Amino acid sequence: MHAENEIHFRDAAAKALQDPQLRANFRRAMDGLITKRKAQFPDPRDLQDLRDLSTAIRSRSLLCLPELLEQLEASCTKNGIKVHWAETCEQANELILGLLEARGAKTMVKGKSMVSEEMHLNAFLEKHGIEALESDLGEYIIQLDGETPSHIIMPAIHKNKDQIARQFSQKIKDAKYTEDVDELTAMARKVLREKFLRADAGLSGVNFAVAETGTLCLVENEGNGRMSTHVPPIHIAVMGLEKVVARLEDVAPLYSILTRSATGQAVSTYFNLITGPRGADEKDGPQEVHLVILDNGRSRIYADPQLRATLRCIRCGACMNHCPVYTRVGGHAYEAIYPGPIGKILTPQMEGVGVRHDLIHGSSLCGACGEVCPVEIPIPEILVRLRREATHEDLGSKVAGKGTGRTATEDWAWRLWAGVIKRPGLYRLATWFATRFGKALPANAPLIKNWTQSRTKPVPARRSLSERMRAEGVPHE
Amino acid sequence: MNGTKPKKVYFYGTCLVDLFFPDAGMAGIQLLRRAGVEVVFPDGQTCCGQPAFNCGYFEEARDVARTQVALFPEDLPVILPSGSCAGMMKVHYPELFHGQPDEAKVRAFSARVYELTQFLVDVLDVKLKDLGEPVKVTWHSSCHAVRDLGLKGEPQALIGQLANVELAPLAREYECCGFGGTFSVRHPEVSGAMVADKIADATATGASVVLSTDGGCLMNVNGALEAKRSGLKVQHIAEFLWERTRAR
Description:
The complex is a heterodimer of chains A (477) and B (248). Chain A is an alpha/beta fold. Chain A contains 23 helices and ten strands. Chain A has helices at 9-17, 20-40, 44-63, 65-79, 89-102, 114-119, 121-127, 137-144, 161-171, 181-198, 224-230, 251-262, 298-302, 318-321, 324-329, 340-351, 357-360, 368-372, 379-391, 408-421, 424-437, 448-451, 465-472; strands at residues 81-86, 107-110, 131-134, 201-204, 208-210, 215-220, 234-240, 244-245, 270-274, 288-294. A six-stranded parallel β-sheet of chain A has the order 1-10-7-4-2-3, with helices on both faces. A four-stranded mixed β-sheet of chain A has the order 8-5-6-9, sandwiched between helices. In chain A, strand 5 and strand 6 (215-220) form a beta hairpin. In chain A, helix 9 (161-171) packs across helix 10. Chain A starts with 8 loop residues before the first helix and ends in a 5-residue tail after the last helix. Chain B has 13 helices and eight strands. Chain B is globular. Classes of the chains: A alpha/beta (477), B alpha/beta (248).
């Protein structure tokens, strides 16, 4: 039995591979990001020290997550930030709609937020007559074309300059065609400035929320985050419930490893620490600040001691930048909010391991992701665990969709395989046949025909090593 | 090993070397023997169980692993001509047997496991004398050898000892060749794109041989090169080292 409505990564990936422009865009961009990250970590020991520290901070935060969330709510409330809790995306959307409608808001500007992507917030608000405009340049570019992000940090990375030039000249009113990057940026800036000044509300994500001080930290490069959170009269921040850390001093190392891992920057251009609405004696800032804390499957992930590591993620995107699969197929092929290696472990846990069975297997387990992860999430290990969960329903876990990827064919194949491999006599017989008749196996036999799509058929040696050892003994020369 | 070199080791062929690269297995044994080590090759070797483990079929993998561990009862190093299989036995066996009644026994076994070049360099400190013609080679580092097992340039160090061998570095040396076991047949398009890039990078080095320590990578890269009718060859590092240094 295959899970109903299983999403086939293989098909989408195969299609993406047919697009040479897409492949060139990703390869160039990812190679650049790998080089820039590397330049930020010249000393492997320093890197390892910072990874150890960052991992410890994130692990410790998760260890006391319920307490920290309560503390965060109390600190935020003290600062005048109203905290809201949402178990599902639907609840979070309704909550935000309620806040906007109560204030008669018709337009909202958004800083970059992956959680709002998770909620499909823009589409939801538009259905209710509220314009949600993305103000991050990359997000703005893809919103013009009705696309979704192809990367969690650089959402429009699948497009090159020429493609954006054409798009702007067609989609932005009175825009002239230019391939000059500064002119293109200025064009978007002009549109967005207007919107910032007139927007009824602003929305942002949260990189870290500090429980002790009730501070919302926001990392960005364009100043649009600051505009979205400070100019409109109401600021709504949305975050996944795992984003909390205990103390302000926890932020510095995480911030440092985040920007260096993500874009190879020592620091980002802007770093916002938001501690509440405009004070009585202050001239600017929003009149209201709201924080929406979303679960959406996270507490289920949290409950599993091994899978909990997934929630350490600080959304730097280094795993996708270094992934040989992502680099070749790009983000859209994953047909998910979070692409790349982190998406490969997060999406199946949120949506179910059966519907995403093909995605879980879309990895060579090369380990490049785990090697660069700033908080040492063992992504390959978790992938193996999820493969196991997909085909076994009786492991005592709470993994979504467990066992629904099981097929009789695969079950029997592994049973048969083990049955032969654990019996040296049978193995000996099998290799005897393979060495004598392996050549005769047709290249279009099942599985072999997948292999021979890009390779010649492997031909076994005439005599196996074991057979030669039995015949000749360990060689003496 | 506190400076005392072991006098006797076990050799574990691995299924891919057994079936596809027996010469590499033979060469590995010869290299060890020449370094003054007695080699024991227990009969009944099959596979380390990695394919089932990587797919999440742990019971099947454990069944297989138990039969293999039982073949190596004496407290001797176990040498494998494969980084991936050595990684499985050294790093993943302890995970696989976590909480099992025989966990301690398996852990003791895992601690004795080495990849061949690792053992030749780090334990035996072998010195090679090149007797071959000048040749240019490139090196493909297998992902599991580096990232699971933690190889730190031992194969390159051995190649570096050969006076007539020029080692041309592969662009993106640490990028996967696209094999990934069942990945290569479950996701043949992505896997195919990865190996196509790998052989393009290998060809661009101008080398005449691609060397690696892993049967899976070698089979993958070789298949792709053959399909393109490339003149570039692949060879297991053990075979390459032995051929160039054996007395004729």
